[in-house]
Amino acid sequence: MSVSRFIIRVYGIWIDENENVLLSDEFFRNTYMTKFPGGGLELGEGTIDGLKREWREELGIEIEVLGHFYTTDFFQKSAFHTDAQIMSIYYLVSPVETPDIEFKTQSMDFDGLEEGAEAFRKVSLSLLKEEDMTFPIDKKVVQLLHK
């Protein structure tokens, strides 16, 4: 089936002072997924404003955008919308305040399993593998982080 629209997504890559990368584990549409924190761009929003909004909504923190890291350069059909192509834009980010959230140590360690459940964990950049990520574009970003 062909695609008839684009979905633009924005993600933040936070590598802390100990070389740990922040990941988001989520349960959405009966699917377990691991990805970088971020989400869909809304109409009328710039990419950086959208990313800052997503981090406020998901983590409750303000971030500084340090720079562009990667934009999808290959065709990727949406996993959830059969008529859509995904375009993802990744930025390197840093919190402007100390996050007041519990970082989990195990994958998919939700406080309760319901639609939209989300948990955050840090993984050592040196141990992060492509197969840790759910989606093809995130896998490509992990490759690039190791270069």
Q: What does this protein structure show overall?
A:
The structure is a single chain. The chain is an alpha/beta fold. The chain has a single domain, classed as Nucleoside Triphosphate Pyrophosphohydrolase (Alpha-Beta Complex), CATH 3.90.79.10. Helix content is 16%, strand content 39%. Strand 2 (20-28) and strand 3 (31-35) form a beta hairpin.
Report a brief summary of the structure:
This protein has helices at residues 47-59, 136-145, and strands at residues 5-13, 20-28, 31-35, 38-40, 63-71, 84-95, 103-104, 117-124. The protein is of the alpha/beta class and 147 residues long. The longest helix is centred in the middle third of the chain and has 13 residues, at 47-59.
Q: What would CATH call the homologous superfamily?
A: Nucleoside Triphosphate Pyrophosphohydrolase
CATH topology: Nucleoside Triphosphate Pyrophosphohydrolase
Strand content: 35-45%
CATH class: Alpha Beta
